[in-house]
Amino acid sequence: MSQEAVPVAPYSRRERLRIATIQEIKDVAREFLVQDGPGNVTIRAIAREMGMTAPAVYRYFTSRDELIQAIRRDIFGEMGGHLRAVIEAIPERDPAVELLASGRALRRWAIEHPHEFGLILGPWGPSEGRQAGQAEREASWAFGSLFAGLISELWRTRGFPAPDPDSLDPELVAQLTALRQEYQVELPVEALAIMVRCWVRLYGVISMDALGHLAFALPNGDAFFERELQDLAAVLGIEEFYAADQPVAR
To answer: C-alpha 72: how far from its chain's center?
Structure first.
């Protein structure tokens, strides 16, 4: 007489409790982050909110910095997941269309989550001059590779204007070559130079807007962002795919 196999729980009760506590610590830290910024995220405050002692919290995270790193990894994952969902919902699978939609989606997410954006791509991270750890760099590249992949596909399928490699400063060529090798980006250095240029420009205008640094001149940055996005489309030779009537951030 055969007996049905008894399913084995993937985690013990103690392990499940530990996982739940770690998640609760990160959730409380995230609430403090959203309320008042990263300066409000302290082990002592988190312990008080959870009804724990600070030494008890340190059993799950050995330092505040380790906790911040864990939150940063989570946020990179959430933001990347949001952008991938936006891309997958586009009926027309074209890198030009997806790239422009991704730029708008990133700005929308940043404006809706300014403290989270500030922690991963703004002035609050990495904190106190700390260099990002390997796991954190991998999380950030999982996000960054989304844009790199779209630019690479655009180069492969359509191409875009790029400078003569001989016109680039040798030091810049060396840096771009190292970047290409480290992250295995399938672009020649001249195309990679354009990719970095576009990312810096997109990231810069989104950061200024989401973190409130444009408000002194532009209470609403929609029109300014759209103009910058249209200019980037022209740089990449995809201005024909730009449509000013697309949904904006607010």
So the answer is: 9
